[in-house]
Each structure stands twice: as structure tokens, then as C-alpha cells.
Design brief:
A hairpin with a 5-residue loop joins strand 9 and strand 10. With 249 residues, the protein is an alpha+beta fold. The protein is built from 7 helices and 11 strands. Helix 1 packs across helix 2. The protein is globular, with a radius of gyration of 19 Å. The longest helix has 14 residues. Strands 5, 8, 9, 10 and 11 form a 5-stranded antiparallel sheet that branches. The chain has a 4-stranded antiparallel sheet with strand order 2-3-1-4.
């Protein structure tokens, strides 16, 4: 596993285009991985999953710089990015990349960590008429995915995901009474991609930034979650669970 940090050049036209179109940024990031190993799109449209790519765009609170964190199972080659895409004359190594597999393997049950997660909280609506009959797995899979707008629903979503992902949230409170958890709605993610019939489909994702403290309750599940991410929209900058040692507790 590798974690890369890219500091983008906000004056670059492709950067501006990618930040306005999540499909474009997805495509640019995947340039760093070898095409020869990709299965054709008709057979496997999710090349991101093949390379284990998760990423998150964020703005540095101190410098205002636009940073993209990219986690991947394969060592990326950022030299393929277009000239001028990354910011030059920065005091930080840009791009930077480091192995993180050993850090994930050294985690222990019961460890408390601070975390950050940019997520797309949703739920699936079951298609068809209201019925008392049991809902099949196929109906669940084919249901429409809808955004969760209300903060309590978003927090309930995160609690469910935590249970499924091998951790529990600590001191969980609403944004109106912040403690260790912060729930911060951010701008919707927008984009456009070509469909199989060559038409254009608009992409829209609701985005929430979760920050707080967690405790590992299942080491195996948690390690899988770090690798696989949380929730939907992983191709478009959602689901990367970033962790750091809790220096307060």
C-alpha cells in the first residue's frame, strides 16, 4: 500500500477542469497506473478498484493549497502527469509517496485513533410498489441510491458503517455540540461521463467531511476498511479513511 500527496497548481487549466469535473480528476489520477494491466472498460469499468485507488481532495488550512491524497495498492508513477499540473517552488516534496502497509499491519485491537473521512452518505430505495413481501437481494441491488441530507441521518449512517468496518466512534455528537466528531457538509461533487450509448450522464454526489476519534473493535475488519474504503462514490474522491495516532488520549 502507498500513500501519495499531490499539491495541485490552481492556475493550470487541466487542474481547474478536473476540480470542476470529478470524472476528469478520476481519469487523471488513473494515468499514474499502467494501462497494460487494466482490463478493458467493457469488461471491468472500475479500474480504480483493480489498483485499490482511493483519494480525497482537500484544502490546506494554513496555506490554502489544494492537496490530493491518493492511496493505492500499486506504486504510482506521477511523472506521467501533464507539465504544470503540480505546483512548483513548494517547500514540500511534490509529489510525495510513501509505503504504508507496515503501518496498517502494526495496528492493534483497542487502539484509539483520530480520523478523517470525506463520504457520500446514501441509502437505497427499493423499487416497485409498497409490499409486505420480503425484499430480495436483487431488489436491494437495483434500488435507487439517494443522498442523506439531514445531519442525524448522516451520523446514523456513519455509525452503521463503523459497526460494519471494525471500529466504533468515540464521543459522537452533533455539529451543534461538537466534541471529538465534526460533521461538515461540503460542496457537492459534480461531473460528467460517457455512457455505453455514447450519451453524457451528469454525476452528482453529496459530500460530508467527518472528523473525529475512533477505537478499533475488530482488527481484521478495520484493516480491510482502510484498504477498501467506506461508502459509495469511491471513484470520485470519497471513502478514504485517513487515520493518525491520538496524541490527546
Amino acid at each position: 500500500m502507498y500513500l501519495s500527496r499531490l499539491i495541485l497548481n490552481p492556475r493550470n487549466r487541466l487542474v481547474q477542469s478536473d476540480l470542476a469535473n470529478c470524472q476528469g480528476l478520476h481519469r487523471t489520477i488513473l494515468r499514474a497506473f499502467p494501462e497494460k494491466d487494466c482490463v478493458t472498460e467493457s469488461n471491468n469499468p472500475d479500474a480504480r478498484a483493480q489498483f485499490g485507488v482511493l483519494y480525497r481532495v482537500e484544502t490546506d488550512n494554513h496555506t490554502g493549497k489544494v492537496v490530493v491524497l491518493v492511496q493505492s495498492q500499486m506504486l504510482p508513477n506521477w511523472q506521467v502527469l501533464p507539465d504544470g499540473y503540480l505546483l512548483e517552488n513548494t517547500t514540500l516534496t511534490n509529489p510525495s509517496c510513501k509505503p504504508i502497509a507496515n503501518l496498517y499491519q502494526q495496528l492493534k485491537l483497542g487502539t484509539k485513533l483520530v480520523f478523517r473521512l470525506r463520504a457520500n452518505p446514501t441509502r437505497k430505495l427499493t423499487p416497485g410498489k409498497i409490499t409486505l413481501e420480503p425484499i430480495t437481494d436483487a431488489q436491494k441491488r437495483n434500488g435507487k441510491r439517494v443522498e442523506l441530507y439531514k445531519e442525524p441521518d448522516q451520523i446514523d449512517w456513519l455509525k452503521r458503517k463503523a459497526t460494519q468496518s471494525g471500529f466504533r466512534l468515540l464521543s459522537l455528537k452533533l455539529a451543534s455540540d461538537l466534541d471529538n466528531l465534526q460533521v461538515q457538509p461540503v460542496a457537492k461533487e459534480m461531473g460528467w461521463r460517457k455512457t455505453s450509448d455514447n450519451s453524457t450522464k451528469q454525476l452528482t454526489f453529496g459530500a460530508v467531511l467527518f472528523q473525529g476519534e475512533l477505537e478499533i473493535t475488530s482488527l481484521e475488519l478495520f484493516q480491510q476498511t482502510l484498504v477498501n474504503g467506506i461508502g459509495s462514490g469511491k471513484s470520485y474522491g470519497f471513502g478514504l479513511l485517513s487515520i493518525a495516532a491520538n496524541t490527546v488520549s
